[in-house]
Amino acid sequence: MKLISYLYLFVATVIWSFAPSLVKLVLNDIDPIFFLFVRFGIVTLLCLPFIYKYLKNKSYSKYDWANIILYSVTGQVVLIIFFIGLDLTTATDSIIIGLIGPIITIGAGHYFFKEKINLMKRIGILIALIGAILVILEPLLSSTNGVAKNRFLGNLLISSNLVIGTFWVIYSKFLFGSNSVKFVSLMKNLGIKLQKKKYNEIEFNLFSFLIAFISTLPFYFLNFKNFNQSIADLSFSSLAVILYMAIFSSIFAYILYSKAQSKLEVSEVSILSYISPIFSLPAAFLILGEFPSNYSIIGLFIIIFGIFLAEKFKKVK
Q1: How many CA atoms lie within 13 A of 32 on its CB side?
Q2: For the CA atoms of the chain, what is the radius of gyration?
Q3: What are phi and psi of 104, to 5 degrees?
Q4: 233: in domain
Q5: How many Å apart are CA 39 and CA 213, to the nearest integer?
Q6: Is residue 317 part of a domain?
Q7: pLDDT average per 10 residues of sequence, the chain (317 residues)
């Protein structure tokens, strides 16, 4: 039932809405990659019995592992880029820039899965992208000092994460049920051969947590003493945030999101993401005391206007 899928999507969206502010709060004290190392370590430990069960009872080909690894890199390992970006910029900027994620995904859904999109929707997408560019450039428009340049770099990393995240959504849609000749052709041009084979979304998410944890191990061994000291110095609040991100933002949210998107169109999955700022922007103010700058507010309203146009005229006549 679509209603259940929408419920899964709503819960995942709300969980993720609080993440930028909570993570930014902890990143004031610890390194972003160290945060991910501990987070993925906890998730892997909790999921290990289920991962072992899959490995024991199922045989995986090289083709299967190629899909699992690519899914993991674009869905979980890529969070390294997001966390480094969030460490450099503000939670508010990351939240506003994140609004263009659904818009990009809707455009990708139209291209790869022939989901209908008309002229007004395309105009709305373009307007929203202009607003996002304004927010990305805001640090350089406000100032040109070192802090501004760091924020600008952080905004670029957040934006890059959105683009990769869009690929992950389309790739997930393909893996878990929908076919796309254009997507298969794109992957072939990149040197990756795809064949239609429906996978289990829970299985893939569990493996993605393990692979993400393995990806952070080199950073741990290179900073062995510092990481161990950081673990010893973790405050209760930092540990609570890490546990929230591990249990709720990772395990629950990703599995619910994957189950929902396997049943819904890409555009349907993306639209519900627009509710995120209802929770995330107030959280940024209450938790961090952040408030958007004048340029960011202008960019936010431009994005909202673009989203309004895209959604109001979404039916093709």
Answers
A1: 17
A2: 20
A3: -65, -40
A4: yes
A5: 8
A6: no
A7: 82 89 87 90 93 89 89 93 92 87 78 72 79 83 76 93 90 81 81 74 90 92 77 82 91 85 70 75 88 83 80 55
Domain residues for the domain of 190 are: 2-312
Number of structural domains the chain divides into: 1
Q: What is the pLDDT of residue 123?
A: 80
Report pLDDT for 228: 73
Within 13 Å, how many C-alpha atoms sit on residue 296's CB side? 23
- Per-residue model confidence (pLDDT) at position 317: 42
Orientation of helix 32-57 relative to helix 224-232, angle to 10°:
100
Inside any domain, residue 205: yes
Angle between helices 119-142 and 294-312 (to 10 degrees): 170
- Asked if residue 238 lies in contact with residue 38, where contact means CB atoms within 8 angstroms, the answer is no
- The span from the CA of 73 to the CA of 209, in Å, is 10
Predicted local distance difference test score (pLDDT) of residue 316: 45
Distance (Å, rounded) from C-alpha 108 to C-alpha 114?
Answer: 9
- Cα 211 from Cα 205, distance rounded (Å): 10
Among 296, 212, 192, residue whose Cα is nearest residue 254: 212
Give which of 209, 217, 282, 218 is closest to 251, Cα–Cα: 209
Type of residue numbered 282: P
Which 8-state DSSP code applies to residue 301? H
The H or E element containing residue 183 is: helix 181-189
Both structure tokens of 33: 């990659």
- Is the residue at 37 inside a domain? yes
Closest CA to 11 of 312, 253, 296: 253
Using left for φ > 0, alpha for ψ between -120 and 50, and beta otherwise, residue 214 falls in: alpha
Length reported for the chain: 317
Q: What pTM, to 2 d.p., does this model score?
A: 0.82
